[in-house]
Amino acid sequence: MVERDLKEFKCPQQFVQFKLALRSAQSSKQCITFSLNRGESANDIERFLQKNAYSYNFDKQRGLLLVEPLHV
Predict the structure, then answer these.
(1) What is the per-residue pLDDT for 55?
(2) Nearest to 3 by CA among 37, 30, 41
(3) 55 to 15, 38, 61: CA distances (angstroms)
């Protein structure tokens, strides 16, 4: 499993770093866990995951987002 801390980034850099890390994890077919600031909006990230049919679990209270790789 890959882990990526996005707490240091603000939008739009956070979204760009999210997509880069997700692409890397997807190419190696690994799950990835993102650490986000609690209380900060992640609506753009969730919309992207839903639009692209990713399986994910977002614990907003802990600021942890687990994304599973797409199976093609």
Answers:
(1) 95
(2) 30
(3) 18, 21, 19
- Apex CA 18: angle with CA 59 and CA 4, to 5°? 65
**Other C-beta atoms within 10 Å of 59: how many?**
11
Contact 48, 20 (CB under 8 A): no
What residues contact 5, with CB distance under 8 A and at least 6 apart? 34, 35
How does pLDDT run across 19-41, given as a tens digit for each residue? 999 999 999 999 999 999 887 78
What single string gives the DSSP state of each residue in 3-40?
Answer: EEE-TT--TTHHHHHHHHHHHHHHHTT--EEEE--TTS
- Single pTM value for the model: 0.89
Contact in structure between 32 and 3 (CB atoms under 8 Å): yes
For residue 27, the Cα-to-chain-centroid distance in whole angstroms is: 15
